[in-house]
Structures are given as C-alpha cells and as structure tokens.
Specification:
The protein has two domains: 8-99 and 287-325, Rossmann fold (3-Layer(aba) Sandwich), CATH 3.40.50; 101-278, Rossmann fold, CATH 3.40.50. It is 28% helix and 17% strand. The chain has helices at residues 22-25, 38-42, 58-61, 84-87, 101-116, 119-127, 151-162, 190-193, 216-221, 239-247, 289-306, and strands at 8-12, 29-33, 47-50, 70-73, 92-94, 143-147, 166-171, 175-178, 182-186, 199-202, 227-230, 253-256, 276-278. The strands form two sheets. The protein has an eight-stranded mixed sheet with strand order 8-9-7-6-10-11-12-13, covered by helices on one side. It has a five-stranded parallel sheet with strand order 2-1-3-4-5. Helix 9 (216-221) links the parallel strand 10 and strand 11. The model has no long low-confidence stretch (mean pLDDT 96).
C-alpha cells in the first residue's frame, strides 16, 4: 500500500481526458493536465500517467517532481521521457508493452501485401477510370528482415511467417534457433545482412545505438527491389538519406508510419512519391485502443497501491522492458 491517504496521481492528457478512470478516481486524487500545467500538477504528486505519449513536456517540468515514485507511459516507446533526470532517478518507469503488438503486425502484413499486389497504383488508375492489366508479386518465400526482436517484432515475425514469408531478426542477442525469427543476427551485422532482405522492417526502440541507423550506407546495402517499412521510431532513419535512396531507385519503396518530425511537414517530398506509403503514426491504433491503454494502466495502478510488483518495468539503462521483466 502506498499510504493510508489517497495518493496523488497526475495525468498528462492534453485536451482529451481518458475515459474509464472511474476506478482510479475512487482511490486517488487525480489531477488532469496539459503540457502547460504539468509542472504545477507534478508538485506533491506520487505518480504520473503520461496518457499523451507524444508530449515532450515531461523533461521541462521535471524540476517540480518532488514526491514522484512512478511514471507510466501509455505507449510502448519511452524515448520522450528518457532524459537524465528520470533515467538517473529512483523513479520507476513502466510502459504499455503488449497493447500494440498484433495491430502493428497486421499493419506490416497489410503494407507488404499492398506493395506486392500494387494496390496503390490500382487505386490511382481507378481514380482515372483506367483499365491497365499488370502482373504482381508473390510474398510467399520472400525474405523479411525485422530489426527489433521485442514483442512487437515477434508479433510481426509470426504474422509474416503465417503468410508464407521467410523471416529473420536483427537484435542485441544472437540466436540460432529462435521460435519466431528462426535466426537472430546481432545488430552489429545489420548492414552486412541487409542485401539478403526483400522487406526490411524497423521496429527497434530508439536508443543512442539505433538513432539514425538507417542511413545512406544502409539503404545502399539493400536490394534495389527491396521495400523499407518503419513502424518503430522516426529517428531510426536519416530522412534525407531515405528520400535520396527512393529518388535514385536504390530501394523500391517505403511504408512509413513514424517520422522524425510529426506531423510530417506539408512540403516533405515523401507525400508525393508514388513508391511511398505515408500513414500518420496510426499503425497500432485500432478501435478501442485508448480504453485498452487505460485498462493496462489501471491494472498497474492497483498493483502499485497494493505494493505488488509492477508490470512492464523499463530498464532505464536500455530504454525498454527486458523480456524477463515483461
């Protein structure tokens, strides 16, 4: 039990308060706030629920966190709060690992099929009332390389394998007989392994080691027929290098759900490239996802109040939840 009195919970939610907080409101003093009011709301707060996981306000407001013991992110990625003040503190950080696995895997399978079956061009031709017969590609037997072997990467691997694709992984730990990837190659071999892949899927967490890892050298190593899919973090990619690779046909296409600047600027060349699929950071956002995020937080809140171990504790040195702590 955190204490006999109600704990104080700050919820960073922007202009949209989360639904389904009634259970928590019965056992905590809840302060709903936006970016501007975060510092004031953190004073005297015991816990912080970052419901607006795209907010970048936590680092600037951290000086006001005088009693905080727990921060929960309503997302799988935690890079918006991986600043020295939190990382070096005793505050426990948890995330919403597990909520987005299957939806993002479905998105990846969808864009793989869209590329192979040339759906984008079919829609453009339909808008022009044009009948143009073409041959399309099979995905069975094609090689998908997934960088990021956490739960989302594993869900992607299982779904692509079920569709008949051959899948390998790129991760921190080498494994020769992985149940989902078959083989996991070390991240140090990424560039050497890229020429083998027909589809390259980026889903790794953003760390100092992964920032900008997909750069000119990486795209130059890929097959000219390969497609690149990013459902991880926009900062995994050197965007200028990706645009250059697409323009010069070093790679055949890209499906991008995340970007280093969001929303994607209106003048970005990516909007108008026929071999690019742009989606607004929505690959994991299916009907009901917001309610699931609150349910996941509520489960951890009840554990926290009871003094029980929390779920999905992030290793702040690594920037993600190790498998043993899921």
């Amino acid at each position: 039990m955190v204490g006999e009195d109600f704990p104080v919970l700050t919820v960073l939610c922007g202009d949209r308060s989360p639904d389904g907080m009634q259970i928590i409101e019965q056992s905590a003093t809840v302060r709903y706030t936006n970016d501007e009011g975060l510092a004031d709301s953190l004073r005297g707060a015991d816990a912080l629920f970052v419901y607006d996981f795209l907010s970048s306000a936590v680092p600037d407001a951290w000086h006001a966190a005088d009693r905080l013991s727990w921060v929960h992110m309503a997302s799988a990625g935690v890079d918006p709060v991986m600043f020295p003040g939190l990382r070096d503190s005793d505050v426990v950080l948890t995330n919403s690992r597990g909520v987005f696995d299957t939806p993002i895997a479905e998105y990846v399978l969808g864009v793989v099929l869209a590329f192979a079956k040339d759906f984008a061009r079919s829609l453009r031709l339909q808008d022009q009332n044009r009948w143009l017969h073409r041959e399309t590609e099979r995905i069975e037997g094609r090689h998908a390389m997934v960088m990021g072997t956490g739960p989302i990467g594993r869900a992607i691997a299982r779904m692509l394998r079920a569709a008949g694709m051959r899948v390998t992984g790129i991760g921190r730990t080498t494994r020769a007989d992985d149940p989902d990837f078959g083989v996991v190659h070390p991240s140090t071999e990424l560039t050497d392994r890229l020429p083998e892949a027909d589809y390259v899927v980026a889903v790794a967490p953003l760390t100092e080691q992964t920032k900008g890892v997909f750069d000119a050298r990486a795209f130059n190593a890929m097959k000219t027929s390969a497609r690149f899919i990013n459902v991880g973090r926009g900062e995994l990619v050197a965007t200028g290098d990706l645009i250059a690779a697409l323009r010069s046909n070093e790679i055949a296409g890209a499906a991008l759900d995340v970007f280093d600047t969001e929303p994607l600027p209106a003048d970005s060349p990516l909007w108008n490239m026929e071999n690019v699929v742009v989606s607004p950071h929505m690959s994991g956002d299916v009907v009901g996802w917001r309610s699931i995020l609150v349910e996941r937080f509520t489960e951890n809140f009840e554990r926290w109040r009871a003094g029980r171990p929390l779920l999905n504790v992030v290793d702040k040195r690594l920037g993600y939840v190790p498998s043993s702590a899921a």
